[in-house]
Fold:
Amino acid sequence: MTVMRSIFALVFVPFLLVCITPRSAAAQTPGFRSVTIQNTVPRRDTQGKVIDAHDGCLRFYAGRYYLYGTAYGKTAGYTINSRYRVYSSADLEHWTFEGELLKSPADGVYYRPYVAYNAGTHKYVLWYNWYRKLWDGQVGVATSDTPVGPFTIVNDDVQLTQAKDRPGDGSLFVDEDNTAYFIYTAIAQDHSIRVERLAPDYLSSTGEVSPVLAQGCEAPSIFRRGASYYAVFDTTCCFCTEGSGARVFVATHPLGPYTQIGNINRDANGKPTIPAQQTFIATVQTPDGPAYLWMGDEWNSRPDGIKGHDLQYWGPPLRFAADGSILPLENTPSWTISVALGQPRSGATARYVWPQKRDPHPIRTDACLGTPLNERGEPVAAR
Structure:
């Protein structure tokens, strides 16, 4: 009997251990981790608070993922107290609030923060869209020595080639040769979309600009795959509940010329497949190479009536056809991906937070819905 027990221990127990080892753990690639992205519930930080970071970008810098965005809180999105925030993570699942980004901003309404790292100056550069008065658009630029800031404003009225026509939404793209580009909307030109090349320090424009890609559009983003550059955006949305499409334009140079090759977020009836407005297309590293994740804000999706709790949709990797076109998006509630594992957060840091102010000229009517707001810029019916 003792011999039989020994044989059982030698043969069956190792077999049992193999059988109960989770497949996901067994399949892990060194330096990567399998994570599940959930799109039907709010993301929360390590303190259990809902992540309030909208219309921004997801980057990987210095061994960690950084999520930049606009925090709206309980407001309707038109107050001087909206601010830029950043969260960091080693794995896209566990997020730490790192503080607010912009140091001593002038009173105004702020949207769409986009950060790029300049390998030449070793500075993190923030480009942002803001309004002293809706919708008198300006573009600002600020810098920091770290990904979490706070960022010091260098110029709050960058003179892009279309500066006189009220620049609106925009985002940053850095090419493989470290040349940076800004794709943005000119509001006074029927929301025309252009791409502009930036100076080597990323603090101003060179004046080199693309032709107009399209009109009546906003929320643009650029990414590169192989030798092709993709610009993605669609019609103006104004915090729209139904979401917006995602037209795809392709070129062999960041300044174009671009050719439209489809719309990946509209079904056969023209309705958005995912009820979200694009904010960014993030590039993440996987064991199989780079993957491109479509990100969009699901405006008015908050389960508790608080705008800052609107859901943000992160799609599974974009799928490409043999001709380089992008296959249509699919509304995926949750999905799993193996991504490069970042570094643990090193120690506590002092989070920069600036105090709330009393808005001297509060907007009392929602610019999108036409509904009343209180003196704090909050919907009157909000809880």
Remarks:
- Residues 2-20 form the longest helix (19 residues).
